Amino acid sequence: MDTDILKARHGLLKAIRDFFYRNDYLEVETPFLSQCAAPDAYIEPLRVFVGAAGPFFLHTSPEMGMKKLLASGHEKIFQVCKVFRVEEFEEHHNTEFTMLEWYMPGTYEDAMLETKRLVDSVVSDLDVADRDFFDRPWKRFDLGELCLEKAGIHPLSLDEGQLFAAMRDRGIAGIRQDEGWQDLFFKLLIQEVEPRLHESGPYFIEDWPRHITSMAKRKDDYRVERFELYMKGLEIANGYTELLDPEEQRRRFLEENEMRRRSGKEPLPVDTTFLEALGRLKGPCAGVSLGVDRLLMVLLECETIGDVLPARFLPSRAQSKVAHLDGVRGDL
Fold it and tell me: What is the pLDDT of residues 88-97, one digit of tens each?
């Protein structure tokens, strides 16, 4: 099993790199370890101590490092690397996972087209069992309209009190009046919208709430220019037109840290050199992050992320929780 997975991962990584090399991207590397981390209310970085020094942070995404390189004049860059997030070990999550991230001139509209071109190229290069799935039309959904259609609520212009009342009136379970807007929105999306989406091919969901996307360019008072790509119920990629205003970015980082404080999390240090680099960028510029392990899951028609990892770190307390996923394997 491990040999097969190694060969499949090799094929996918080669196909990814071949696409970017053919399209004049520069492959880059950025540091995994930093004294700062992008403040995010919902993503928790792993902390590292070196002797008595620290904490340092393992990156949750190479985004800030890559944007610093963009400020040096490189317009089309990509990176394939490991990233780290404090998450529960679940069917689709692992603390350490492989991310592809790239940046290009243009907007999120251009990035959606490039994402489809990448996937089409990968599928063409590889022996994919369900090739028909990728040949079907790739649909695009407006997030607010999708919520209205599937759950009867258009959340983007509602404040948290109005959103709670609307969800309560719809009989949505598991909500509390003291929850913030973001928590309510994610419950609406995960419980009421995603289970009602049964698309036969890949699809994009676009124009996400400003409240949950701190580094994307505004589209209007409520939305940012962001998309997510889904395949067979899995979020595969996330992209947006980059916010290039350092002062607005600073304000958004402060908002994220305030949300962290309210939820009992420690605020994260802001990287001032990153903010300075934003001020030197010329736009528009778009970036996309893609989960390589999840894409491999779809290509191989696997059910869990553990099925596509030849070796997977699990703390002892979680070992028994996931061992049942593949009863004959002893290397989980």
Answer: 767 788 889 9
282 within domain boundaries: yes
pLDDT at 290 over 90: yes
- Residue type for position 191: Q
Q: Answer yes or no: is 174 within a domain.
A: no
Cα 279 from chain centre = 24
Q: What is the mean pLDDT of residues 123-152?
A: 95
Global pTM?
0.90
CATH number at residue 229: 3.30.930.10
| DSSP conformation letters of 36-97 | -----SS--PEEEEETTEEEEEE-S-SHHHHHHHHTTT--SEEEEEEEE-----BTTB-SEE
**Joined tokens for residue 313:** 């770190």
Q: How far does Cα 43 stand from its chain's mean position?
A: 10
Between the alpha carbon of residue 214 and those of residues 135, 140, 187, 309, the distances in Å are 33, 22, 19, 31
310-325 average pLDDT score = 45
Q: Does the residue 234 lie in any domain?
A: yes
